[in-house]
Structures are given as C-alpha cells and as structure tokens.
Specification:
Layout lengths: L16 H7 L4 H18 L4 E5 L2 E2 L2 H8 L3 H13 L3 E3 L5 E3 L8 H31 L4 H39 L7 H8 L10 H14 L5 H13 L5 H6 L5 H15 L4
Antiparallel strand pairs: 1-2, 1-4, 3-4
C-alpha cells in the first residue's frame, strides 16, 4: 500500500446528474459523505480504485459502517445506490472498486512512481554492466577488454530483454485465463496476488503451475483466489514442482481433493 496523502475531487462534482439524483434521496447528505469517504479510502489503499482492509480481506458493510462512523443500514443503501448508478462495482468476493478511478486519482503521481521504478531498473542494469566490465578488466588487454565488455553488455541486454518478454507473455496468459473463465474480471487485487507466485514460489516453471491450478479450479467450478492458492500451496508442501510431477502423482493429491469437497460444501450453502 503506497502512502497517498490526497485525491482529486472535481469542482463540478455536484453538477453530475447522478449526484443530483442522490441529493433528492432520503439520507442524501450522509450518502454523499459516504461517497467521498469511499474515494478517500480508495486513495489510501492505492490499488487502482479497489478498497479493502488488507490483502484477501474485503470490507463488509458492517466494517465500513464502523470505519465511516455511519449507520450500517445507510451504508448498505449507499453501496446499492452507487452500484446501481455505475459509480462502484462489487465483485463476487465483495471487493469494492471505484469505477473510472482515473477521474479521482492522482495519475501524475502514479506516473512519477512508475518513472522512479524505471530508474531503479536502469540503475540495476548499470550495476550489472559495471560488474561485467570489472571481470573483463582482469584480462590485462585494454582493447580486448573494451571489446569483450561491449559484447557482454549486448548479451546482457539481450538476455534481460528475453526474460522480460517471456515474463510478459506468461503474465498475459495467466490474466487472460483468469478473465475469460469467470474468476472475476474486475478483481485486480486477486490477480496481482496470484501473479506474485511467479517470483515467490519454488516451482521450476511457476507460470505453468499457476495455469494448471487455474484449470483445476475452473473444472471444479470453484473460481476464487483462495482455492487456487490452496492448490499451489499443497503442491509446494508436497514438493511437487512441475506439471509433469502433478500428472505422475495422479489426477490430484488427496489433500487437494479433500479441500475441493470442503469448498464445494461451503459454496452449496451460499447464495450468490
């Protein structure tokens, strides 16, 4: 969560037709205050317009009522109003997203953060080049050293570019599968959490393992992040690190099948 100190509010905010309609509703002033509080909360979360208490913990109506210090019935009415007016969206896991967040967020500030990230990457690549040159200097021949250093820089650039392209392709495949198979197109926070497995796992080909877990979750009709991560954690704990090992260990590990039954029973009792 980045430290966002302020958000944008348009001076024409109260000229909007939706706001005018809300002003004619019961508890209009409280509903409008809740709207501004939602915008402020989204700024604090700084997750592309999403609002949540912590990773994997969405706000409930009762929690928002406590945070906003407003009656829960008014908070509930406000959320339904905002959703029906297309001002927010609430996905199947109850994550709230401010629609058209770019109208409210400090886009220039985000651009600045991205530029700082780009500079850090450039600095890292420069450091790698310096280390490459240092190794080349040990040869004792200036002409050969310079030529070798340049060649190694080019090779390093090519390898970094290949890795970047490969990573981008893997990310695109995972996001496409998630979006096109009913896991929640607007649940950006869940997708970001899933993509962390590309860097923070022991899998030999983490992208293939994530796709395999998504396929199992989709086939089981349990399309949510917790179930997918449960599959991945089970594989890690069982030291199953490749798709080939999954297939050689049978259709699914016993623990995973038990977890599937548990989630199916849970979802049978829920009304979506």
């Amino acid at each position: 969560m980045s430290d966002v100190k302020w958000i944008k509010l348009s001076t024409h905010m109260f000229d909007d037709e939706k706001i005018r309609v809300i002003e004619q509703m019961p508890e209009a002033d409280t509903i409008l205050i809740i709207w501004v509080k939602l915008l402020s909360q989204a700024g604090k979360t700084n997750a592309s317009g999403y609002i949540y208490l912590a990773e994997n913990i969405p706000y409930t109506e009762e929690m928002l009522a406590a945070v906003f210090n407003r009656p829960v019935n008014v908070v509930r009415m406000a959320l339904k109003t905002f959703e029906s007016f297309g001002m927010i969206s609430i996905d199947q896991e109850n994550y709230i997203e401010i629609c058209n967040w770019e109208k409210h967020q400090n886009v220039e500030g985000l651009d600045k953060i991205r530029e700082q990230t780009r500079k850090r990457v450039a600095k890292h690549r420069k450091k790698q080049r310096i280390e490459t040159n240092k190794d080349s200097n040990d040869t004792g021949n200036d002409d050969v050293t310079l030529r070798n250093a340049t060649d190694k820089e080019l090779e390093l650039d090519k390898e970094l570019d290949k890795e970047k392209d490969k990573e981008n392709n893997v990310v695109a495949v995972i996001v496409s599968f998630w979006d096109n198979n009913g896991f929640g197109f607007n649940n950006i926070q869940a997708k970001e959490s899933l993509l962390k497995w590309l860097d923070d796992s022991n899998f030999k080909e983490p992208g293939d393992m994530i796709i395999k877990a998504l396929e199992i979750a989709s086939a089981s009709n349990i399309r949510n992040l917790r179930y997918v991560e449960g599959i991945l954690k089970n594989w890690e704990n069982s030291n199953i690190l490749t798709v080939e090992e999954i297939e050689s260990n049978g259709k699914k590990p016993k623990k995973e099948a038990e977890k599937k039954d548990k989630y199916e029973d849970m979802y049978d009792d829920m009304d979506f």
